[in-house]
Amino acid sequence: MAEDARPKVRVGILISGRGSNMEALVRASLLPDAPFEVGLVASNNPDAPGLAIAQSFGIPTFAHSHKGMKRAEFDAIMARELQAAGVEVIALAGYMRLLSPEFISQWEGRIINIHPSLLPLYKGLDTHQRAIDAGDREAGCSVHIVTPELDDGPVLMQARVRVLPGDTADALATRVLAEEHRIYPEALRQLAAALRDKG
Ligand code: GRF
To answer: Given pLDDT bands bounded at 50, 70 and 90, which one contains residue 45?
Structure first.
């Protein structure tokens, strides 16, 4: 089949740390039939290890600490960089900041997040320990559209993982993370393809 000549949807990825989901998205963007490309990886943490990973793929990066800044003021700096990079869709990948409504309204319905639980269960932190403590037999991860509420917004895709007898939060997190790396690129691919079809 001839390669799709339409421009790819430009994605910006926001990270705060390790960046393994970011790397999964970048790798997916490099596949020949990917409907998206990564235009910028930005972080609120200048020491985020993920920044070096992005650079190793030749992706432009931007980092600015949020410390001592008001949320809206900091978000305006990030928004300016993302707009300058022509970003149409934003993927949060371990971005440990709540976004201001002003920021979200600029990419309404075009910001997605990966969260390590079966939403609406366990919004926030320590999701794996909470699932174990509750005696859940299943855990997992969710990709959802970002709204001003933390870990809220319509769920686009989920993957389930069995909680095993004697599971620790770390062991469960490792198995869930493998699923995150599988579904996050797939959800972004579907969203980008739908946006490209809309023109
Ligand atoms: C992942 O578990 C993700 O679900 C959560 O934060 C973690 C980020 O890991 N939002 P990484 O930086 O993508 O490796």
So the answer is: very high
Q: Is 147 left (phi over 0), alpha (psi -120 to 50) or beta?
A: beta
Ligand 1 contacts CB of residue 39 (under 6 A): no
Centre of ligand 1 from the C-alpha of residue 33, in Å: 26
Q: Which of 64, 66, 115, 128 is catalytic?
A: 115
What's the token pair of residue 191?
């969203």
The residue contributing the CA closest to ligand 1 atom 7 is: 94
115: Cβ below 6 Å to ligand 1?
yes
Instruction: Give 139: exposed, middle or buried? Use CB within 10 Å, 0-12, 13-18, 19+.
Output: buried
Reported confidence tier of residue 2, pLDDT bands at 50, 70, 90 = low
Establish whether 115 is a catalytic residue: yes
pTM of the model: 0.97
Q: Is the model's pLDDT at 1 over the cut of 80? A: no
